[in-house]
UniProtKB/TrEMBL annotation:
<dbReference type="InterPro" id="IPR000572">
    <property type="entry name" value="OxRdtase_Mopterin-bd_dom"/>
</dbReference>
<feature type="region of interest" description="Disordered">
    <location>
        <begin position="1"/>
        <end position="20"/>
    </location>
</feature>
<dbReference type="InterPro" id="IPR036374">
    <property type="entry name" value="OxRdtase_Mopterin-bd_sf"/>
</dbReference>
<feature type="domain" description="Oxidoreductase molybdopterin-binding">
    <location>
        <begin position="37"/>
        <end position="181"/>
    </location>
</feature>
<protein>
    <submittedName>
        <fullName>Sulfite oxidase-like oxidoreductase</fullName>
    </submittedName>
</protein>
<dbReference type="Pfam" id="PF00174">
    <property type="entry name" value="Oxidored_molyb"/>
</dbReference>
């Protein structure tokens, strides 16, 4: 394990390095939102998983927090070319939610959608295997509203536009259905290591 120190002196456990065409944003965390930050209280937040699943379900804030906790510590990469190393998010693994609804064997993709209407499509395989989380803590504190609080999806191995803020639900599908940015020319999958920024990359 390679431990390095950043400019802040905070130890970084790490490190996969920078994907091609990215720069290290350091301590900055830019806010990228296509919509106005919603005023969404934890008491009004829900997560629904439905579509091609055996048992569609909705969790409220308390029910989601009663699930086993899981954290992500690592890097995030925005398609606008900033990356951020060693961030810490706390929440619940998406595997835990998906195990409860039991996706149909024919399911291949999903659309994640926000309480605001923003959408992102993902292969189901990118949402399973300990690689996606519903998170409400950042650095041990409640996730700020502008960054998707009270709760957002994170899929940190893909470009960060897939990590839907103010997550409201996930619809499981047997086909790919382009989301907000994907309808506007962005790549269907968005793997930063293969620089899948735009459709055709
Ligand atoms: N609901 C919603 N989620 C979103 C977005 C958005 O505009 N709306 N932007 C995406 C993009 S392009 C990025 S890079 C990240 C930005 O997250 P941040 O603002 O916390 O840095 O959120 C993603 N999730
Ligand atoms: Mo982004």
């Amino acid at each position: 394990m390679n431990v390095t120190r950043g400019f802040t002196g905070r130890p970084r456990v790490h490190n996969a390095g920078l994907p091609p065409g990215q720069y290290d944003a350091g301590d900055d965390w830019p806010v990228l939102s296509a919509e106005v930050t919603p005023d969404l209280a934890p008491a009004d937040w829900t997560l629904r998983i439905d579509g091609l699943v055996a048992e569609p379900r909705t969790w409220d804030w308390e029910q989601a927090h009663a699930l086993p906790a899981s954290a992500y510590e690592g890097d995030i990469h925005c398609v606008t070319s900033w990356s951020k190393f060693g961030v810490r998010f706390g929440g619940v693994s998406l595997d835990t939610f998906l195990e409860a609804v039991r996706p149909d064997p024919a399911a291949t993709h999903a659309v994640a959608y926000a309480h605001t209407g923003y959408t992102a499509n993902l292969p189901l395989a990118d949402l399973t295997g300990g690689r996606a989380w519903i998170v409400w803590d950042y650095d041990g504190r409640p996730l700020p509203a502008e960054h998707g609080g009270p709760a957002r999806l994170i899929v940190p191995h893909l470009y960060f536009w897939k990590s839907v803020k103010w997550i409201a639900g996930i619809r499981v599908l047997d086909h790919d259905e382009p989301g907000f940015w994907e309808q506007n020319g962005y790549h269907a999958r968005g793997n930063p290591w293969e620089e899948q920024r735009y459709s055709g990359d």
